[in-house]
Protein: Na/Pi-cotransporter II-like protein
Organism: Roseburia faecis
Amino acid sequence: MNGIMIVLTLLSGVALFLYGMSLMGDGLKRVAGNQLELVLYKLTNTPIKGVLLGTIVTAIIQSSSATTVMVVGFVNSGMMKVAQAIGIIMGANIGTSVTGWILCLSYIDGSSGIAQLLSTATISAVVAIIGIIFKMFVKKANYKNVGDIMLGFAILMVGMQTMSGAVSPLKDNPHFVNLLTKFENPFMGIIVGIAFTAVLQSASASVGILQALSVTGSISFAAALPITMGIGVGAACPVLLSSIGTNKNGKRTALIYLLNDLFGMIFWSIVFYSVNAFVHFKFLNMTMSPIKIAMMNSIFRLATIMILLPCINLIEKLVFRLIKDDPEDLEEQADFDLLEERFLAYPALAIGQSHTAVNGMAKKARKNINRALSLLGDYSQDKYNKVQEKENLIDKYEDKLGTYLMQLTGQEMSTVQMQQVSKFLHTISDFERLGDHAVNISNVANEISEKKITFSESAQKELSVLEAAVREIVDLTVDAFCEDDLEMAAKIEPLRELIGILCNDLKNRHVTRLREGKCEFRQGFAFNDLLTNLERIAAHCSNVAVAMIETETSEFDTHEYLKSVRHMKDDAYLECFDSYARKYSIPPTKKEKKNK
């Protein structure tokens, strides 16, 4: 029974410790606002700066995982390069050791006088009282956040005391002492450190538990060192989890965190235990205290980073080799590499490079639409995630191309060159919107899959006809743009008009099915969302065609052009429209046949 109570008390202490650390870290982040993110993003142009910033930020927010997850987000969005992230992650490994020193405060104790005033109980009580006053009675948000920090600190201290109190009776238990001596086996100690930290998802919590156990006087240096080595590797678990769904650079950044600690563990294990085999260090049997563990943890992490710091370029090459780019990724990077600033001084060259990059954007948008449409008939989570990932890439295209083209407008150019740049500026926004509608369609497909929605046979047939028409208009648009084919571009508006008619027809048919009870309202919402997105895709394709056809004029007036085209439908337009109408005809319903 005593054993059960000890375990429950220890776990309650761990719970309080983790909650207190989380509350304190969240409060610190809110007090800092977005400044931490801005500092990380802007001041990482050298490895040393990156290490220092990573150390400081992690010491503030008390979590190397949180810092690294933040960095994974920056790299995933393209705001930061993998090389910049390596220094910050190294610094995060050093910064997380600061928590161990803070936890040493929880072991300050005294029975009388000044020692009693400086005891953990007194400090925690004073901090908690001030914190609750700030939290409950002060209106300013910053003071409330400071209150959270103070309450988090107090809870953290109480958690540490609870853990220490739970294990202190075990110091006289021979079975417990015997168990701890098994950790002196380096392999066993490392495995325990990895497993503990992977479960708790916090290196600081694992170090805190190790410090609490050291109060029993049963933890030797020989047991503490391998556990500390394993703790660093186990802390990579939440970071690796955070990289799920990110692009390859995001995954590479998460892998760097694991490799840093893995290399450190392997290197120092080989060096330390090889030397010990000849020298036989006498301090291996030294009894560890909370302060000694904090010191060992800091020295180990600092020494690891000192060894790895000169190898940043090698680490970068290794993660790129472990997570390789596929041909599509290399093609994307090649598009971005075209937009070199030195070409801006030569507008003809810069325009040619821009056209190639916009072509790449158009093809990615088309592929994403086809990928999203395929989800309607064959849904899979991997395909769905791919659509979201490629949408971020299409947004990146728009951002880079938009910036580059705006810079190009500042150069001296001919009228024809200005028209070309204007055309690209108009079309990239439409290609980006095509990507948005691909995401919308994928979300509808996700809803259909999760809610197990099934359309009636007639609705499925109607949708298949409309989807085929939309796939053709997207193909026409991308091919016409990439090949600068105005004859092909002229065929886009008739098809867009037909798609608009089809969408209205399908909406009316679906309303009829709803009235007749052949479909449910939840099916109706999904069906209507699909029609809206398909119709908007056709509209953006029409915009691209207009931009191409109007390149010869000095101004783009899309609405006036379309109004004139629809008003003066010539023979070529009507012939094209009729051809599409025959190709994408929807058989009349039984009711429509009877009415005829």
